[in-house]
Design a protein that fits this description.
The complex is a heterodimer. By secondary structure, chain A is α+β, with helices and mostly antiparallel strands. Chain A contains 19 helices and 19 strands. In chain A, a hairpin with an 8-residue loop joins strand 17 and strand 18 (524-532). The longest helix of chain A has 42 residues, at 2-43. Chain A is elongated, with a radius of gyration of 37 Å. By secondary structure, chain B is mainly alpha-helical. Helix content of chain B is 69%, strand content 3%. Chain B contains 13 helices and 3 strands; from the N terminus they run ααααβββααααααααα. Chain B has helices at residues 2-14, 17-45, 51-72, 82-95, 120-142, 150-171, 174-191, 196-218, 226-235, 246-256, 283-316, 320-344, 362-380, and strands at residues 101-104, 107-112, 117-118. In chain B, strand 1 (101-104) and strand 2 (107-112) form a beta hairpin. The radius of gyration of chain B is 21 Å and the shape is globular. Chain B starts with a helix and ends with a helix. Classes of the chains: A alpha+beta, B mainly alpha.
Chain lengths: 579, 383
Amino acid sequence: MKTVNSTARRNMTVQKRKTFIVCVLSVIALLALCVRVGYLMIMCSERYSEQAQQLHERERDIKAARGRIIDSTGAVLADNKTVCTISVIRSQIEEPERVIEALSSTLGLSEEYVRKQVEKRSSRERIKSNVDKETGDVIRNLDLAGVKVDEDYKRYYPYGELASKVLGFTGGDNQGIIGLEVSYEEYLTGTKGKILTLTDAKGIELDGMGERRREPIAGSDLHVSIDINIQKYATQLAKQAYETKQAKSVSIIVMNVNNGEILAMTNVPEFDLNEPFTLTAQYEGQEVTQDLLNQMWRNGCINDTYEPGSTFKIITAAAGLESGAVTLNDNFSCPGFIVVDDRKIRCHKVAGHGAEDFTHAVMNSCNPVFITVGLRIGVDRYYDYFTKFGLRQKTGIDLPGEASTIMHQPDKIGEVELATISFGQSFQITPLRLMSTVAGLINGGTLVTPHFGVMAVNEEQGTIEEFTYPVTEGIVSADTTDKLKYVLEQVVENGGGKNGYVEGFRVGGKTATSQTLPRGTGRYIASFLGFAPANNPQIMALAIIDTPQGTYYGGQIAAPVVRQLFENILPYLNEIGYQ
Amino acid sequence: MAKKQVQIRHSRHNMDYVLLTVVLFLVVFGLLMIYSTSSYEAGDKMGDSAYYLKKQMQSTIIGFVGLVIMIKLPYKHLQKFDLMAVFVSIVLLFLILTPLGVTRNGASRWLDFKIISFQPAEVAKIGVIVYLASIIQKLETLGKNVIRTPKGLATIMVPPAIIAALIYIITKNLSSAIIIMGIAVAMLFVAVPDYKWFVAAGVTVLAAAAAIVFYVANADAASSGFRLARIRAWLDPESYSTDEAFQTLQALYAIGSGGIWGKGLGQSMQKRGFLPEAQNDMIFSIICEELGLFGAMTIILLFVILIWSCMVIANKAVDRFGSLLVVGVMSHYAIQVILNIAVVTNTIPNTGITLPFISYGGTATLFLLAEIGIVLNVSKSCK
């Protein structure tokens, strides 16, 4: 008994010690867990809070205002209109009947529709979007519990059709689709803001938990070189020609010869930028397809190529004068045709121009003379000049979709090809390509990049960027420039470009009448390229009438268009002191 | 007669009021947190935001009745219930298989006697504690080192093992089985003078666990089953955020977003449907979110005081039986608190264990309070 007792006592002591051990081990475990909890709540707090926050918050975007597009006179060509989206939050509605009544009457919606939306078992239901601001304000002022009026921006073009193919328009997400809206997307587009609302796991917004807002940042305004007055007038002239000549299209481009700024660019028929998905009159009766829309949006000035015809003789003349292959006083004789490689190429004057010097050959636009000059220059040199004048490259204009030059491979150019190239046939370039090369030839030899974008201006930071464009100097000598200016002024004063003459101004230019491809369809493209003042060129204009009915000679139908344009814009430009 | 009266007066004086206060605080705090965590979901699903609070208050009241009975009833009477406790536990477990058994949330863990329904596993926990305390005491009186004979060991360990196995097989409740085995091992450890076997067993268990984890971490994800998927989810909760680790990750979000001072009582976001049934196993994470590190530490500290008080009472108990009862209760609390917090903080793989006195659960609350009654009863007659 005694042993049992003493054993029990001993065991009791052991038991006490071991109970203590169990307890201490448990306490150690709990303290370790304290450390673990502390680690999670201090070291991992940021990570988990952030993830939890993302889980709890529902985001609603606040659209940022897109930057405006502003012309050189300060006129806003592309603007934003505030529109409202009306929605209801079911859980917050206090007087459903009043809400249904008010919304259906102010928004002009049927009562059943509004009732269905209001009574739908969802947290937030949209009633109508793109509601104009006035109506939105009316609804907001009714102060109905549970009705939300969210403001939103919609692109708006105050001048409708004006410069539609240049400006472009935006899509549903306010992103640029064509034109400058695409090229300057990164400047124009703003940064979306966010409204973050706390919701429970089912996405129901929690009342009284507040919301976080991140304000949107508006996009930068794009200032362009377009002058709205010139653009309007050019468009008006183009429309006139389009209608009277029942042409397929009429393009007019007005450009600063010295820096490449484009003051106007129109390609009639234009389309309404506020309704870019509605086909215009010339597509009447056709179903809306993406193909037709793309056709309608196409800017013929840069997206399409053509055979320039006689206006290209400026390039041959420049190459001839620069290479020394010809001088202004060289004498030629035109019998009405020329034989190249036993092929007979006719002059447009079947009887021939007879004896003439090079100046007169330019004034007469005499094909045999230019073929002769071309052949004197030779294939290799001609091709080098073609390249040097930038004709094989795109102009680099700040519009999307510029077409490339379609030209023979150098090893495929024989005498016949060279002959046709010399007077502007058998290859294709865009109207703008022709224009910028000629600008470089007459401005003293500086090849400029035609462009619209001048600068991007941000409301907060001011001017964030003044755009600069690549320039290639010395494509021709000053001497050649002077001679070109002289002969081209002669063309307008006394030659084939007489209809381009403007009283009181010195104008230089060249006409062209080119056949459309394929040949032999009897369709022509009439064009005139003019610049002023002839002795110190500042402004250049190109008018192209595609497939006119009736008279189709460039000198007779395109030159008057440029004359009328110059008659109006030259005094205007003097008045505003343009360069 | 006079002597006995003195003893009683004396013993009343000795009752551990600190322990009682801590428990009362935990119970009240638990009710508060149950209301805070469950009201949003309860209001949504049951139409009564106080639904869970009311049910928990009912069980708490019954629990306090049990507590008072256990304080009044001299604990020595429990000694007679040794085999009875095991028998009752086993019978109740088998009853789950009869029509009396109820399946809730996909688990058959309840018995429904119309007036009262409860989980037999919770009864088994207290049953095992009573059985072991009583049988160890009896083996002790049989002679020196009887416990350490194979027969003695078998007498001690086989019934708890059977009960744990039944719980796992019948109710699929791994955590209750683990708790019961844990209690048994702890009481055996305390009862015998040996260390090395326990250290060896502990090391073996740890090594086996490490081996399994290592195996799972390197195994092909598709080839392993449900239990192993839990281990994978534990190792990398963010990759299993939609299934196995969903609850764990949501709990971590709650804990992490609490910070040092918490969002304030009632301000939890995670309880708003993100962490389903937050009032059950994961309630500690909501405590962290609402009351911050400060609140979490306070709760852990209260449990430390609770366990420490039990140890003090166990070591002051006048007899072996009383002491062992308290050790059993102490290890029960310790195991559950440690495992619960470890699970919630993703320290160990997820297994459903409730936090004593705080988590929602009727049966558990009743028996936890009854166990405290036993401890307080023992404390009355401490030296």
